[in-house]
Design a protein that fits this description.
heterodimer; A: alpha/beta; Rossmann fold; 7-stranded mixed β-sheet; 5-stranded mixed β-sheet; about 20% strand; B: 14 helices; 7 strands; globular; binds thiamine diphosphate; binds magnesium ion
Chain lengths: ~325, ~375
């Protein structure tokens, strides 16, 4: 076993490096990902190691990045695109939703689209407008795209490699607020299926489900709840599309209560989808309605208001209390 | 990249006026200016530079989340900003602090954005038609094209009266020039012959990416393919920026269709305070542009025309006053009420906003009661 203590940024860096080493068709593309190593340093050192033909500092145009990645994929490459910040993916929205997502289907399966789009997302970094958003629902809503988000360095290391191996397009959301905290990464393990939810903390009375940046918040809430006498199970979704429901349904059958949390606005969101599906699949096990904790349905506010906007442990606990009160 | 044979320069690096065939068209715009007007250029450049440097310091001291320096680009901005007539509309990118100030936007509005208190918040109608900053690169070029189309539909341009005929100027960078939106703006502006001046500040970098990655041809030549005339100016020459922008805006307002100016300048500092340029660029380039500095050469020019130490001391004092005042007001800034999030999302009542505003108020009140 080989365990390293790495930040998520470094774990992703190592995962990308493994992918570049493993397959000469893997390419990295994006703004400032070359000598600078990306604004979050996720690609640091990779341009120096692999050169201009594997790590492409692109012109400044997101539609161009994704559109040309599609062409490169047609030619047999496996492009991994970096979008600099969540709020800047939208110039590429057309290429992603009308082209990337549909080309395999339109070719009746004869063409695959092994394109990964890495997107740093989410708040808690005190940044200016368009730099703290959580746009995952738009992509989860689009048939043809796989959407995932790691919550910790170990998962990030493995999930980025699995995403690159996938023959379908994967939108890979990286929680910015989790880039820096370190965690153990077992680089000798054999990984896990990309689309598998994981029970990160066992409990018996309430199930908390989240993904990406929310998982550490859920664990924090679970600990407080435990100290106040409520046993909470925490599940890390890891994959937003498709969703691996079995562990969630099994958990709800045990606890009878489910709270889903996310940074993204709640209206027509991943949380809404999970609430609906769990209600369909585990209705007779539920002791309380499935509750959602989410960002408000407003534009992401100026940074000084982000702590009021984003769900924190208290907001999650408020929902836990409400669920317990039924 | 530095200056080329095509670069229009009215004031050379030594601070001397350039008289040549290439400048003959533009020098009359300068000859018309009074000494006071000429000094105003200097005042604006010096004051904003001091403000800019101090704002970066405020960021380092934890008062701002980030600062976006305009250091080195003062001449391109001051010259073009003062060239716009009162009735003109200005669509900035996010570095044009001095143009905001020229059009009457309190620099505190920009400080507030970068402290994390607002996303803009000034009304262009009350600020001499200076529109909000746009952080999504290039988006504003289409808004400017559309605004200019509206001016034309209203018949508010090309009537033959330059005192009232309206035009629009839009600012964007060398990196942004690659965006689809910018290219679509060129198409729309050309197609409708909208009264719009594209003002590209080529500061040679888009964060860590050099302009050579964006374009194999000098950027002033690109609009030619869209049917829009382009011109390259020395962006560190405030007189060239003023004269060429005035001429271009007047052409646009008198029915000449869209125009395009590429101002060659340099981002002297980091992209923002989050950036470390030593990772990707060398000092040689910086040395060239330090010698080409706008303020140094313009001071020489003004001195040659009789400006004395007391004039420069007066400006220094004004710059010091402004920065002290901004510093004081920045430190005193409070935090907005969370309920503000729900204001202005829609212009009319909206059930979800009402419900969430109420939920948040009750939730906050539950803490005051000592519960939860
Ligand atoms: C659509 C979009 N993509 C990426 C970014 C991130 N970003 C902010 S500034 C910048 C570089 C811009 O370069 P340029 O247009 O030359 O303007 P400058 O910053 O040099 O003034 C980048 C990539 C953004 N703001 N918007
Ligand atoms: Mg630039």
């Amino acid at each position: 076993m080989s365990v390293e203590n790495l930040s998520m940024a470094k774990a992703l860096n190592q995962g990308l490096r493994q992918a570049l080493l493993a397959d000469p068709k893997v390419l990295l593309m994006g703004e400032d990902i070359g000598p600078l190593g990306g604004v979050f340093r996720v690609t640091e050192g990779l341009h120096a190691e692999f050169g201009d033909n594997r790590v492409l500092d692109t012109p400044l145009a997101e539609s161009g990045i994704v559109g040309t990645a599609i062409g490169l994929a047609m030619r047999g490459y496996r492009p991994v695109c970096e979008i600099q910040f969540d709020g800047f993916i939208f110039p590429a929205f057309d290429q992603i939703t009308t082209q990337l997502a549909k080309l395999t289907s339109r070719h009746h399966g004869s063409l695959t689209m092994p394109v990964v789009i890495r997107v740093p997302y989410g708040g808690h970094i005190g940044a200016v407008e368009h730099h703290q958003e959580s746009p995952e629902a738009y992509f989860a809503h689009t048939p043809g795209l796989r959407v995932v988000s790691p919550s910790n360095p170990h998962d990030a290391y493995w999930m980025i490699q699995e995403a690159i191996q996938s023959n379908d397009p994967v939108i890979f959301f990286e929680p910015k607020s989790r880039y820096w905290p370190k965690g153990d990464v077992d680089t000798s393990a054999s990984g896990f299926p990309l689309h598998s939810t994981r029970v990160v903390r066992p409990g018996t009375e309430v199930t908390l489900v989240g993904y990406g940046p929310m998982v550490s918040m859920l664990l924090q809430a679970a600990e407080i709840a435990e100290s106040e006498g409520t046993s909470v199970e925490v599940i890390d979704l890891r994959s937003i599309s498709p969703i691996d429901y079995d562990p969630i349904v099994a958990s709800v059958q045990k606890t009878g209560r489910l709270v889903v949390a996310q940074e993204a606005p709640g209206f027509v969101s991943v949380g809404s989808e999970i609430a609906a599906t769990v209600t369909e699949r585990a209705f007779y096990s539920l002791e309380a309605p499935v509750l959602r904790v989410a960002g408000f349905d407003t534009p992401f506010p100026p940074a000084k208001l982000e702590t009021a906007y984003l769900p924190d442990a208290d907001r999650i606990l408020e929902a836990v209390d409400r669920a317990m009160a039924y | 990249m530095s200056y080329t044979a095509a670069t229009v320069q009215l004031l050379d690096i030594e601070g001397k006026l350039v008289t040549s065939d290439a400048t003959a068209e533009y020098l009359p715009y300068i000859e018309k200016l009074s000494d006071d007007q000429l000094r105003e250029f200097h005042r604006q450049m010096v004051v904003i530079r001091r403000f800019d440097i101090d704002a970066a310091n405020l960021q380092r001291q934890g008062q701002l989340a980030m600062w976006i320096p305009s250091l080195g680009q003062e001449a391109a901005q001051v010259g073009s900003g003062l060239a716009a007539r009162p009735q003109d509309h200005i669509f900035p990118s996010y570095r044009e602090h001095v143009i905001a100030r020229i059009r009457g936007v309190d620099p505190m509005r920009i400080i507030e954005m970068l402290r994390g208190l607002s996303h803009g918040g000034w009304d262009p109608k009350e600020h001499n038609n200076f529109h909000l900053y746009t952080l999504v690169l290039g988006s504003q070029t289409l808004h400017a094209a559309g605004y200019a189309m509206g001016i034309q539909l209203d018949g508010a341009t090309a009537t033959g009266n330059p005192e009232t005929d309206e035009a629009v100027i839009v600012y964007f960078g060398d990196g942004s020039s690659s965006q689809g939106d910018v290219n679509e703006a060129l198409v729309f502006a050309a197609s409708y012959q909208a009264p719009l001046v594209f003002f590209l500040q080529n500061n040679h970098w888009a964060i860590s990416v050099p302009v050579t990655r964006q374009s194999r041809t000098p950027l002033y030549l690109r609009p030619g393919g869209f049917g829009i005339p382009g011109i390259q100016i020395d962006g560190n020459d405030v007189l060239a920026s003023y004269a060429v922008t005035t001429a271009n805006l007047d052409r646009a307002r008198s029915g000449g269709g869209p125009q395009f100016i590429e101002a060659l300048t340099y981002r002297m500092g980091a992209h923002t305070t989050s950036d470390d340029p030593t990772k990707y660029r060398d000092n040689e380039e910086l040395d060239f542009w330090t010698k080409a500095d706008a303020i140094t050469r313009y001071e020489k020019f003004l001195r040659s025309r009789g400006a004395g130490d007391d004039f420069f001391a007066e400006i220094e004092a004004e710059a010091a006053d402004l920065t002290a005042d901004i510093r004081r007001r920045t430190i005193a800034l409070g935090v907005p009420e969370p309920s503000q999030m729900f204001e202005y999302v829609y212009s009319e009542p909206h059930a979800l906003m009402d419900a969430q505003r109420e939920w948040l108020a009750n939730y906050e009140a539950s803490f005051e009661g000592g519960e939860a």
